[in-house]
Amino acid sequence: MSLQPPSGDSPGIRISDADRERAAARLHQALSEGRITVSELEERLAVVYAARYGADLAPPLADLPGGAIDVTVPPPPLSTPAGPPMVLRTGMGGLRRSGQWAVPARLRVQSGMGSVYLDFCDTQLPHPVVEVELELGAGSARLLVPDDATADVDGLVAAMGHVRSKVPSAPVPGRPHFRIYGRSGMGSVTVRRRYRFAGRFF
C-alpha cells in the first residue's frame, strides 16, 4: 500500500499538531485492536508526523474504520465588545438585576460593601460577547448565566475571597460568552447556571 498522496491532488488546508495527534491516536487504537502490526504502525506514524496537509493524512488511515480525520478550519475568535461600559454602582446596599433587563456589551460593576446579583437567564443577550468588569470591596457577587453560555473568569483577581466558576470557559460559536474580569477584595465571586428545585429557579 502506498502511503503517499496521489499525484496531482490539491493538498488542501494545512493541518495542526492536534490533527496529527488525532491521526496518531487512531493508529494506536488500530494496533491495539490487531488491525495493523507494530512495523505498520511505525511506518504510518512517520507519515502522519511528517504530514503538512489534510491530504497527507488520508493514506495512512484509508483502510481503517472511520477513514481520514476531519480537518476543519477553526472559527475566528470572538471579538472584544467596543464602546464605553454601562456602569452600575452601589455602596453598602445590594445591587440586583434579574428578569428582563437591558444587558449591554460591556458592564462595569462597582460595589463597596454591598452584594451583587446579576441574572442573565431571562433576558435578551443581543451581543455574542458580554464583558463584565467587577470592582468589589467587601461584598460578594453571584452571576447566573444561561445553560448554553460559557464564561472566562481568568482575568478576575480575588484578594481575600475566592472565585468559583461552574461553567465551561472556552467560547463556543453561536452561544453567549461572558468575559468576567476585575478585582474582588474580601468577597467571593460565583459564576454558575441556575438551579431548579420544586419548580423554582435560584
TrEMBL record:
A Pfam cross-reference name: DUF1707
DUF1707 domain boundaries: 13-65
InterPro entries the UniProt entry points to: DUF1707_SHOCT-like (IPR012551)
Protein name in the entry: DUF1707 domain-containing protein
Species whose genome carries this gene: Pseudonocardia bannensis
